[in-house]
Amino acid sequence: MKTIDAKGKLCPMPLIMTKKALAEISENETLKIILDNETAVKNVTHFLEEHGMNIHLEKKEGIFEILVQKKGNIPETTIVENYCKVENQQISNYVIAFQNNKLGQGVEELGTILIKAFVNTLPEVTQKPKTMVFLNSGIYLTLHDSPVLESLKKLEILGIEILVCGTCLDYYQKKSALGVGRISNMYDILEKFSQAEKIIYP
Amino acid sequence: MNYIVFIFESTHQVLKVEKILKENNIKYDIIPTPKEFSSDCGMSIRIADSSEDKNKIRLLLLNNQIAFQEYKKNA
């Protein structure tokens, strides 16, 4: 597998390197791109997705790895600079507090399907939350076997802070099963709530 | 990323499909039915277009006599 290391590089360098590397590999071959900042990840991801490539993103200790399978060719005339975005302007100052692994009250199976739809839609919402907090049985949404793990990971990579109640993980004995987000406590969580412009309780 | 969205006649059908997919260890996402495909505010099942489970799902739906429509979506 071909690998490019674009750590510490500013836009449009990661894009130029990506475009060049993709031109050098053959169809269906996989390219690994290593990056160290969220803006670069967003720009490169947007660039690849717009050209119909299948990507897989991973974050390990502040380092991002994008695996991309080459599908078709990126036209030589593509201007990569057009994909440089400085900041994500779409994050606003609201918090979503998940107090339950279901949405609303009523029959359980309906609440379960609604919460999945809720979280899976968030990556497409224009005004994204600043922080998402998971409390009580809401923590089940952040575990390895969560049905919405992929969407939460996507949101985290987009720069949305995910805080998970440590007491709750401990109570349900799920600390070792955490799949996304940062373990947090009531001090942090209340700070976020008190600074938020609004809080949404799904 | 390209997705395939499966649309069903009711929420109860979606729940039934979920159960079948789970039993067959197929990964999927539940999403609200995209507005461009239907205006009925329902739920749909989404999988990556690149997923090899596509045909498996179609077959399971046919075998279980579940009516569905499928669309491609880029998100």
Task: Kindly describe this structure.
The complex is a heterodimer of chains A (202) and B (75). Chain A has 202 residues and is of the alpha/beta class. Chain A folds into 2 domains: 2-83, 2-Layer Sandwich (Translation Initiation Factor IF3); 90-200, 3-Layer(aba) Sandwich (Hypothetical Protein Ychn, Chain: A). Chain A contains 6 helices and 9 strands. In chain A, the strands form 2 sheets. In chain A, strands 8-7-6-5-9 form a 5-stranded parallel β-sheet. In chain A, strands 1-2-4-3 form a 4-stranded mixed β-sheet, covered by helices on one side. The longest helix of chain A is centred in the middle third of the chain and has 14 residues, at 108-121. Chain B contains 2 helices and 4 strands; from the N terminus they run E-H-E-E-H-E. Chain B has helices at residues 11-23, 54-63, and strands at 2-8, 29-32, 43-48, 68-74. The A-B interface holds A 49, 52, 54-55, 69, 109-110, 113-114, 116-117, 120-121, 123-124, 147-148, 150-151 and B 1-2, 11, 14-15, 18, 29-32, 43, 46, 48, 50, 74-75.
Number of helices of chain B: 2
CATH class annotation of chain B: Alpha Beta
User: For the terminal residues of chain B, how far apart are their CA atoms?
Assistant: 6 Å
Order of helices and strands of chain B: EHEEHE
CATH fold name of the largest domain in chain A? Hypothetical Protein Ychn, Chain: A
Strand content of chain A: 15-25%
Number of domains of chain B: 1
Number of strands of chain B: 4
Give me the count of strands of chain A. Answer: 9
Quaternary structure of the protein: heterodimer
The assigned structural class of chain A equals alpha/beta
How many domain regions of chain A? Answer: 2
Low-confidence stretches of chain B: none
What percentage of residues of chain B falls in helices of 4 or more residues? 25-40%
If classified by CATH, what would the architecture of chain B be?
Answer: 2-Layer Sandwich
Adjacency order of strands in the biggest sheet of chain A: 8-7-6-5-9
- Roughly what fraction of the amino acids of chain B lie in strands? 25-35%
